Amino acid sequence: KKSTGYSPFYHNTTLRTVLITDYETAILENEFYLCTGLKTVQIGNGVKTIGNWAFSGCQSLEYWSFGSGLTTIGQEAFSDCENVTKIYLKFLHAKQRKFLVTSNNMQ
Length: 107
Fold this sequence. Notes:
single chain, mainly beta, four-stranded parallel beta sheet, three-stranded parallel beta sheet, 21% strand, globular
């Protein structure tokens, strides 16, 4: 299984943007956990799975862009991401909808 790796950026407070290429197939559990400075995440079309707590605690996160290959979003993958104002989805399966939490800040 190709992925960006297991938790290489765990608790990295200086990371601002994550661009995951179409060549990656998974974002693993806790991979970007507590990256409190992270503002933007763009996920390529090759990514099928976002692991549990992958972006949990990314409190500065404002924008997500999901590629068309996404089929699975893990438990609390985006929990405590309180400042999200925009989400761009190329495709969203019905079973994924239950994992997305709406916010009064979102447009």
